[in-house]
Write a structure and sequence with these properties.
Helix content: 10-25%
Structural class: alpha+beta
Order of helices and strands: EEEEHEHHH
Shape: globular
Strand content: 15-25%
Radius of gyration: 18 Å
Strand order of the largest sheet: 1-2-5-3-4
Number of helices: 4
Number of strands: 5
Largest sheet: 5 strands, antiparallel
């Protein structure tokens, strides 16, 4: 099991070597990973794609998927590719799509056709000012975290 995502993450099954894997006939989110330094850091994986399927067995996995060539280029060869899957409990297609968008925003996988940002706007959740709470301690831009929010981040 590997956890992907923010905070505690989602519990994905795997990772397994993609080349020897038989996809089950289930709806799930899947992530394609590779080990950038298999000798020095054998348990560290890099996410190179995230997607979902209504039926993994019909999605063209392992190497008939439309982005399989991109995966091979990024990993160096097809035997360095790994897959992990997450069957969303009670989840619909819309739930899987949201999880894919979240993971793409976090990992920015190079083979994903779309990229998403993690942002919020005041009109979505209101401004963050309350007499019982202090100011934010992080910025609104996760890539620009300084440990303290600036005044412009709070307005």
């Amino acid at each position: 099991m590997i956890r992907l995502g923010s905070l505690a993450g989602y519990p994905f099954e795997g990772p397994r070597v993609l080349g020897g894997w038989t996809p089950p006939a289930i709806a799930a989110v899947f992530a394609i990973l590779y080990r950038a330094d298999p000798d020095g850091r054998p348990y560290d994986y890099a996410v190179i794609d995230v997607d979902h399927a209504d039926n993994l067995a019909a999605a063209g996995l392992p190497f008939g998927h439309p982005r399989a060539k991109c995966w091979e280029r990024r990993a160096g060869n097809k035997w360095n590719l790994h897959i992990c899957t997450y069957e969303v409990p009670g989840g619909l297609r819309s739930h899987r799509e949201q999880i894919v968008r979240e993971l793409v925003a976090i990992y920015r996988p190079g083979c994903a056709p779309e990229q998403f940002d993690q942002i919020w706007k005041d009109e979505w959740i209101g401004s963050y000012r309350a007499p019982t709470a202090g100011p934010l301690t992080t910025t609104r831009d996760p890539g620009r975290s300084t440990g303290r929010a600036s005044e412009s981040d709070l307005n």
